[in-house]
Amino acid sequence: MKIVVFGGGTGLSILLRGLKKYTKDISAIVTVADNGGGSGVLREDLGMLPPGDMRNCIIALSDIEPIMVSLMQHRFNDGYLKGQSFGNLLIAAMYEIFGDYEHALKEIGSIFRLSGKVLPMTLQDAQLKAHLDNGECILGEKDIPDYVSKSSCKIDRVSLVPEICTPLEETLKDIKEADIVLLGPGSLYTSVIPNILVSNITEAIIDSKAKVFYICNLMTQPGETDNYNVYDHVNAIIKHSSRYLIDYVIANDELISDNQIQNYKFKGAKQVLVDEDQIKKLEEMNIKVISSDFTEIKKNYIRHNSEKIGQLLFNFVAEKNK
């Protein structure tokens, strides 16, 4: 089973941990438009792509000892390196040693014995711009959710700066050979959609033999998807790509108790649940909905059950190949 996954953030890395139990042929295509945190500092200081999401995906796909995982995720507490993670610095060092990201990531993949590979969505220095429904534009991924929340407006669409960003040839090759392409999970406007804005990506996915699954978020994200349901998430992706892009939607239909969701409610987030009305609308668009309880709650964090999704996809490909 060859899978290509597009996304970013915590959601993508958690999904990868489940997928690698069912296949070793995974290509994780990671958004590199973020400009905040330790990644943003390295991006500005060294002129490199932000490494944070790539670091998390490398760890998720790796076959290394727990102490090495702790080392990669370790953040310095004091001095000039305060807030910076060791993993980010390792990627930065490999980038300087080899002179380009493609070579550096291949070497890192070999060192960490990855179940697949991690690739940036583009090698260009791309920024994310949000076009709001009040006519304003915000440049910079880290500023978008906060500004939208404070201004009581909504995101109409997002774009990349520069507008034309090219993908890696390896990404296009992997899409062509894939059995399944996954979109998400991850922040809709700042992690998932930026990947499909890269030139030729949408066309390559549509032209491939792969079936395309969108894994919808379990919770809304304040400043990005306030009050969105599953149908709204799908429509946002289609607005930025093509109505022919998505074949299946994986969506949660299980209500989470108020006690388990309290921390999220405090931040303004709500559950994203699919219902019969949404399913009917999506099926009228020729998009099939796979609904079930896809949640997994650990230490009060609501995440996708990545093993359940991995098993679902494995069974799908096995049935298809009979």
Short description, anyone?
With 322 residues, the protein is of the alpha/beta class. The protein contains 14 helices and twelve strands. Helix content is 43%, strand content 18%.
What does this structure look like?
This protein has 322 residues and is an alpha/beta fold. Helices cover 43% and strands 18% of the residues. The strands form 3 sheets. A 7-stranded parallel beta sheet has the order 3-2-1-7-8-9-10, sandwiched between helices. A 3-stranded antiparallel beta sheet has the order 5-4-6, with helices on one face. The protein has a two-stranded antiparallel ribbon with strand order 11-12.
List key phrases describing it.
18% strand; alpha/beta; 7-stranded parallel β-sheet; 3-stranded antiparallel β-sheet; globular; 322 residues
Task: Indicate the topology.
Blueprint: E1 2-7, H1 9-19, E2 25-30, H2 37-46, H3 52-61, H4 66-73, H5 86-98, H6 101-111, E3 117-120, E4 127-132, E5 137-139, H7 144-151, E6 155-161, H8 169-177, E7 180-183, H9 188-197, H10 201-207, E8 211-215, H11 230-239, E9 248-252, H12 258-266, H13 276-284, E10 288-292, E11 295-298, E12 301-304, H14 306-320
Parallel strand pairs: 1-2, 1-7, 2-3, 7-8, 8-9, 9-10
Antiparallel strand pairs: 4-5, 4-6, 11-12
Helix pairs in contact: 1-3, 1-14, 5-6
Beta-strand content: 15-25%
Q: What average pLDDT do the residues reach?
A: 93
Distance between the termini: 13 Å
Strand segment tally: 12
Strand order of the largest sheet: 3-2-1-7-8-9-10
Major sheet attributes: 7 strands, parallel
The shape is: globular
| Helix/strand/pairing category | alpha/beta
Total of helices: 14
| Secondary structure: helix percent | 40-55%
Q: Low-confidence parts lasting 5 or more residues at pLDDT below 50?
A: none
Tell me the Rg in angstroms: 19 Å
Order of helices and strands: EHEHHHHHEEEHEHEHHEHEHHEEEH
